[in-house]
Amino acid sequence: MTDLQQLKNIKLDYEDNIAIVQLNQENSKVNTLSRKMMNEFVPVFNHLKKDDNIKGIIVISAKPGSFIAGADINMFESVKSRDELYQMSRNGQEIMNQIEQSSKPIIAAIAGSCLGGGFEVALACHYRIGMNDKRTGFGVPEVKLGLLPGAGGTQRLLKNLSLSDALDLILTGKEIKAKKAKAMGLVDILVEPIRSDVQDMEEQNIEYLRSIAIRKVKEIVVQKPTKRKFGLMENIKSIIMLNSYVRNYILSQAQAKVMSQTQGLYPAPLKILDVIQQTLENGSKVGLNAEAEAFADLAITNESKALISLFHGRTECKKNKYGKPEREIKTIAIIGADEIGAGIAHVSIDKDFQVILYDTTSSALYHGQSQIIKSYQNYIKRNRITSTEYSRILSNLNCQTTFDNLEKCDIIIESVFEDLKLKQNILNELEQYIPEHCIFASNTYILSIHQIAANSRRPHKVIGMHYFSPVDKVELLEIIRAKQTSDNTICTAVSVGLKQGKIIIVVNDSPGFYTTRLLIFSFIEIFYLLQEGLLPNDIDKATKKFGFHIGLAILLDDFGIDMITYIVCHLKNIFGERLVNSSVIELLQIFVKNNLLGKKSGQGLYIYSNDGNKKINPKCKELLRNSLTQTKDIPKIETIQWRISLRILNEAARCLEENVISSPTDGDIGAVFGFGFPPMKGGPFRFMDTYGTSNIVDLMNNYQLEYGDRFAPTQLLIDMAKENKKFYP
């Protein structure tokens, strides 16, 4: 029994005959259901349950922005056996059952994230009060970690929602805001914050939420709880769900959607559907056991381990490992109002940066500004921001065709075409206007930062910041440091990127950096395959079955065949035939000459129509027919998958070997978030660990014999295979 006087993660308060259990996890920004938390929570709850003086209980958080963010992932990662995982789930279910079955009313007063195990705690409580602010959200994101809710969450969501709504939440792992949760019946009362626009009011908001919860629990104690009355539509839904034909139809539709979206490569969604079917057919007792069995099965899969590894990597890349900049960054100037430049402005103005968006022409500037305005107007329509917030955010943007006010800038982010001379000239010109402390960052994906800074008066303040399109949706930011880049320049760029909401990898200046290099090597292998008689849809089918979210032939067209040709010509002198041979370069140049540039020109490997449909481009077929290599049979799906992925794996390992990237974690995050390497494989390095480096090297050797030296394994992989080493501990 925990000494209630020695609690470190929970504060126990009383008001009259009401107990307030205030969660405040030690040395953490958020509350989680860690071992230490549960070792206090369970004894506290048991004590309150037995205390006859206590008539009602409130569970609330002392941490602004976090009710309970979920279970502590490290807790079940440390468990070694399936049986222990099963028992862990059963123990969690029992705790939630005790909360639900308590004779004393228990209210969850929720402000901030209420996710995963935290949402399961709230669902087990008798009454839920939610703060109606931006930071309060509800969801069960376990599926994103290759798991399912393991403490009765599947059962209680089925009990509280229609089958379709429950499936939507559990299968997608999406987060819903308080207002939507109230509309769905998951929250009983919404509390409007005293002030939603001032950060230092959060503690007062928590006190206000607490006072309302106390008032409500006292009402329930006096009135005695009554069973929730269901409306007409809810009763109709309930009757429909008793019909096995309707249930099975909804489940079969959900399964078809899962298979279409995941190719069956993620075990968790299919297990979730199985648990729900068992529950609907046999009741909650069977359902709870099925949930625990499924949780234990999923937690030991390679897919879950890979997704959890990505979760840890993403968390690591959201931290500032480089220290605090010497100066606070207040004003950013973005040079170039194209899609990327406008996107950088978009993710900056709502973070309270003052932003100057510059372009040489009014028309380009108008286009970029319109892109930003349209995006934020959509946010209003989707209730993500208010009209007042919209006006405040847009007031941070100043669009101009002159270099006025650049003397106020703390950082310049240049986003113009990938032309070395152009970027050098812009830097040289801007150095006449910007203050001494100002940093110059080039949004480049191929050009050397050292060369861009070659004529600079202060090369130590020049750095690369490679944003990905669309900037407001792709989380990754690849920061490129040259040898002369100062530590303060690096930590300033990192600080800006983190404030913009990015996950960050820092790479060393080298040809192609990291993400572009991997992407180009995969694209080149696609052209080799096309020369052997494959069609673009063969490539797409194989790569989607491997786990890419979209087919790589489609991604190739999106990227642009002209851009690929430009980059390949730039890198050919450096990497030689390890990258590409002359026949593929000739083929690329023929595509460009015939205006088969990809989606931007309406045709590439595919022809794109205005209604969004596509079909294989007959002109592409004709061009490929003239360059076919007839020496080999047409590759099968597995061969296609390995040929493309081995090029990626080998180049990723070479980047680590050459110190382009500093760790396997950065390599995995860059590949998954930068160009969509299959998440369920965890990234190139996690995948090589799972498959075995010796097996990977054997495959590379076999493919080298059949297809040439471009598949020769890098020395790092050869050495690791000999010693049976892994990239991760």
From TrEMBL:
Pathway entry: Lipid metabolism; fatty acid beta-oxidation
3-hydroxyacyl-CoA dehydrogenase NAD binding domain residues: 331-509
Catalytic activity of the protein: (3S)-hydroxyhexadecanoyl-CoA = (2E)-hexadecenoyl-CoA + H2O; (3S)-hydroxydecanoyl-CoA + NAD(+) = 3-oxodecanoyl-CoA + NADH + H(+); (3S)-hydroxyhexadecanoyl-CoA + NAD(+) = 3-oxohexadecanoyl-CoA + NADH + H(+)
Annotated ranges, domain 3-hydroxyacyl-CoA dehydrogenase C-terminal: 512-608, 643-725
InterPro entries with a match to the protein in the record: 3-OHacyl-CoA_DH_NAD-bd (IPR006176), 3HC_DH_C (IPR006108), 6-PGluconate_DH-like_C_sf (IPR008927), ClpP/crotonase-like_dom_sf (IPR029045), Enoyl-CoA_hyd/isom_CS (IPR018376), Enoyl-CoA_hydra/iso (IPR001753), FA_oxidation_alpha_subunit (IPR050136), NAD(P)-bd_dom_sf (IPR036291)
A GO MF label: NAD+ binding
Keyword terms of this UniProt record: Fatty acid metabolism, Lipid metabolism, Lyase, Multifunctional enzyme, NAD, Oxidoreductase
One Gene Ontology CC term in the entry: mitochondrial fatty acid beta-oxidation multienzyme complex
Pfam families found in the cross-reference section: 3HCDH, 3HCDH_N, ECH_1
GO biological process terms on file: fatty acid beta-oxidation
Domain of life: Eukaryota
Enzyme class, first EC level, given as a word: lyase
Presence of keyword Cell division: no
Enzyme Commission (EC) number: 4.2.1.17
Family to which this protein belongs: In the N-terminal section; belongs to the enoyl-CoA hydratase/isomerase family.
Name the record gives this protein: enoyl-CoA hydratase
